[in-house]
């Protein structure tokens, strides 16, 4: 595995790979890798000839009061994990090379980015689409794999790829969970052992919603109300949002039908966790 | 020469060309071609193995009260001209294929797009950078050639290419002029014969500025004042702006030194013409 720091060199290498007609699979990450990330890499590797992984804690997707400084980093450990998967190139650019002095260009997807996570984190997706557009131009992948835990991110990036004619296949891979149901996330590191006991309520609330659907409930307010009730039993849980939307255009649903996305964001102290589940409602 | 309508087919063709290691030269236009355009194509052809020209009157770069509907179009004539130059692929996408229903993604360069043309045409450059990003993703050129008549456009696109890591060389080619100095533009078609007599004042005003610099004048206000005086002698001329800025970052200059851009936009009836000249000031 080669570790590349320079965007220009990474681009040059990827151009040469493409000239050979090889398929590039790409997994962009912010590092501090867990099994969820590694699963994305395994999927990308299966579907490509050359696997490129990037690790870049992207400042432009963090709000001014968010955890950019505090976000966990461990490049040495990450390198070992990525190498084991059989990654060919690990791209770890420096901030000053990605956003040099006088940087001025942003990519933005409208509407889809104003709801759910976008409502709570106003400039978040603008940072995500900008850095991913940059990474796509550098790495020139045929396939890029993202996690369904960040469901809205995958929807937004698919839209960007379609709208800007990137011609890249975006795959959203299933969320990997701990035994108690907690979705793997680098931010789980922040949790105290007391919080750790309570965070499993995120997935429990999503399963409750699924169960209610199964039993015939079709009223979104009733489902949200029950989810809220369950979550509020955990004294450390502070609900940011619970939302029931269409899974494609992320618009709130009055009548539950088709592919329905249940998503939520819950704060435990300073730590904000998200999760979601997609349910086919007939 | 092949004429391609479908963005997907154009992208597929260009991918195959790139796989062969060939250099793609690209000239994006809005059609109704004149010698200025043809000059860009000759330059692109010299520097590449395969020349791709696009003709697309891009709705997103016109303001709501601007001349999108009225903008001149003559695809049959354009085809003949482009073929004569030795163009390999003429890409003429349909609006509904470039901006399908539900289109949501925009590329924007900050600051640089708020001055000069951007001050007079607030959403213009957002439309330009968006469509050019799309065209770059479809055509995957190594080199793209733009005209210096749209000086700010070339500066903005260079910035976009650098910031988003496109790895494309942007060439800004000299403005082609009529004998009387008028910069070639598809919009010159709009001019009445009475206006035609007067529009040469744009270039005359720019030459006056250059002459004043040559004679030692270094006060921007004095130069603008003289230019204004000259232009106002033409009864049909209505000044939108006359500006003296740095040629790289397009910021107003208090002291004239280095690469200085003199630019102006003048209305003649409903027709708005722009021109500029770059002068090295020691």
Structure at a glance:
Two copies of one chain form a homodimer. Chain A has 282 residues and is α/β, with parallel strands linked by helices. Chain A is built from ten helices and ten strands.
Question: What features would you describe in this structure?
Answer:
The structure is a homodimer of 282-residue chains. The first copy, chain A, has 282 residues and is α/β, with parallel strands linked by helices. In chain A, 38% of the residues lie in helices and 23% in strands. Chain A is built from 10 helices and 10 strands. The first copy, chain A, has helices at residues 7-19, 35-46, 75-85, 95-98, 117-120, 124-139, 151-163, 193-198, 201-214, 220-232; strands at residues 2-4, 24-29, 50-55, 89-91, 105-109, 143-147, 169-173, 237-246, 258-268, 271-281. In chain A, strands 1-4-3-2-6-7 form a 6-stranded parallel β-sheet, with helices on both faces. In chain A, strands 8-9-10 form a 3-stranded antiparallel β-sheet, with helices on one face. In chain A, helix 6 crosses helix 7 and helix 9 runs antiparallel to helix 10 (220-232). The termini of chain A are far apart. The mean pLDDT of chain A is 97. Strand 5 of chain A pairs antiparallel with strand 5 (105-109) of chain B.
């Amino acid at each position: 595995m080669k570790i590349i720091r320079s965007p220009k060199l990474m681009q040059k290498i990827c151009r040469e790979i493409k000239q050979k007609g090889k398929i590039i699979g790409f997994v962009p990450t912010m590092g501090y890798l867990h099994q969820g990330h590694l699963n994305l890499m395994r999927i990308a590797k299966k579907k490509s000839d050359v696997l490129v992984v990037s690790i870049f804690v992207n400042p432009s997707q963090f709000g001014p009061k968010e955890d950019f400084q505090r976000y966990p980093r461990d490049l040495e450990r990450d390198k070992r994990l990525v190498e084991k998967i059989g990654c060919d190139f690990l791209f770890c650019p420096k901030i000053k090379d990605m956003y040099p002095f006088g940087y001025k260009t942003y990519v933005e997807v409208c509407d889809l980015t104003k709801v759910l996570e976008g409502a709570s984190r106003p400039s978040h997706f603008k940072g995500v689409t900008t850095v991913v557009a940059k990474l796509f131009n550098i790495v020139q992948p045929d396939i890029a794999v993202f996690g369904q835990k960040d469901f809205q991110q995958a929807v937004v990036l698919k839209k960007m790829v379609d709208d800007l004619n990137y011609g890249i296949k975006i795959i959203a891979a299933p969320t990997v969970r701990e035994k108690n149901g907690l979705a793997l996330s680098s931010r789980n590191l922040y949790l105290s052992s007391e919080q750790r006991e309570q965070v499993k309520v995120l997935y429990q609330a999503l399963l409750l919603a699924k169960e209610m659907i199964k039993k015939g409930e079709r009223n979104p307010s009733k489902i949200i109300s029950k989810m809220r009730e369950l979550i509020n039993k955990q004294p450390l849980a502070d609900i940011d949002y619970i939302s029931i939307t269409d899974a494609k255009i992320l618009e709130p649903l009055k009548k539950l039908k088709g592919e329905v996305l249940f998503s939520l964001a819950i704060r435990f102290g300073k730590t904000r966790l998200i999760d979601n589940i997609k349910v086919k409602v007939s």
